[in-house]
Amino acid sequence: MDYAKYNAGARALHWITAVIIVANLAGGLLKESLSDVVPIMPVHKATGVTVLALSLIRLGWRLTWRAPAYPATMGRLERGLAHSVHGLLYLLMIAMPLSGWIMSSGGKYPISWFGLFEWPKLPVPRGSVLQEFGAQFHETAGWLMLALVLGHVAAALRHHFILKDGVLRRML
Ligand code: HEM
Ligand code: HEM
């Protein structure tokens, strides 16, 4: 069977950001145990702001084309659920790094992009309500994002191995 695919740019951006986001979710949640072995946070921040930049590019690019049609076997409810999860994932791909950036802007360490240049800080005073909001949001939304990613992956695997309807192959 022939499957309409997502375009090459969309596929590349999907997989690059997916790998970094999974690493950042894991790194963030395991930071205490990992920090005894390697200083994880400088890398977490550099990869995180990279996700912000890539996601803005991805979202802008996404508005210029239509996704390939779903198989006719997919009902309205399933399509609606898929669209809602994708929408929330897009939102969190922006909001997670943004809240991290806000929180870290009020911190004492510089935000370095892999030692190559310094990422600018937002005007967030140390100990301010805004910094605290960034930190709270980053933590809560991190759990929400983890749950959505797990659901998203489970759905992709269900399409591939149970329904065998080619939905996963559109993104490969
Ligand atoms: C895709 C992007 C990102 C994801 C998925 C992500 C995920 C997480 C998660 C799950 C945690 C653990 C929960 C917590 O302690 O708050 C965390 C912690 C943290 N993140 Fe991120 N993060 C991202 C981007 C960023 C960025 C861009 C920055 C800063 C520039 C940042 C700075 C931090 C800091 C400083 C902590 C430790 C907070 C603490 O110990 O209280 N993160 N991140
Ligand atoms: C952090 C990890 C991930 C994030 C944030 C993410 C995000 C997204 C988003 C936002 C879309 C919608 C694309 C669009 O229409 O513009 C999408 C589509 C898709 N993703 Fe992911 N994804 C992640 C990981 C994965 C993984 C690990 C798999 C496979 C096991 C996967 C499989 C797919 C498939 C098959 C589609 C197309 C689904 C459809 O058209 O309904 N994704 N992903």
Give a written overview of the molecule.
Keywords: Cell membrane, Electron transport, Heme, Iron, Membrane, Metal-binding, Transmembrane, Transmembrane helix, Transport. Its cofactor is heme b. This is Cytochrome b561. By secondary structure, this protein is mainly alpha-helical. The protein has a single domain (8-171), classed as Up-down Bundle (Fumarate Reductase Cytochrome B subunit), CATH 1.20.950. Helices cover 66% and strands 3% of the residues. It has helices at 8-29, 31-35, 41-62, 76-105, 129-163; strands at 111-113, 117-119. A two-stranded antiparallel sheet has the order 1-2. Strand 1 (111-113) and strand 2 (117-119) form a beta hairpin. The chain is elongated. The chain starts with 7 loop residues before the first helix and ends in a 9-residue tail after the last helix. 15% of the residues are buried. The structure holds protoporphyrin IX containing FE (HEM) (2 copies). One protoporphyrin IX containing FE (HEM) binds at residues 14, 18, 21-22, 62, 67, 82, 86, 89-90, 93, 149, 152-153, 156, 167-168, 170-171.
Topology:
Blueprint: H1 8-29, H2 31-35, H3 41-62, H4 76-105, E1 111-113, E2 117-119, H5 129-163
Antiparallel strand pairs: 1-2
The chain binds protoporphyrin IX containing FE (2 copies).
Entry keywords:
mainly alpha, Fumarate Reductase Cytochrome B subunit, two-stranded antiparallel ribbon, 2 strands, binds protoporphyrin IX containing FE
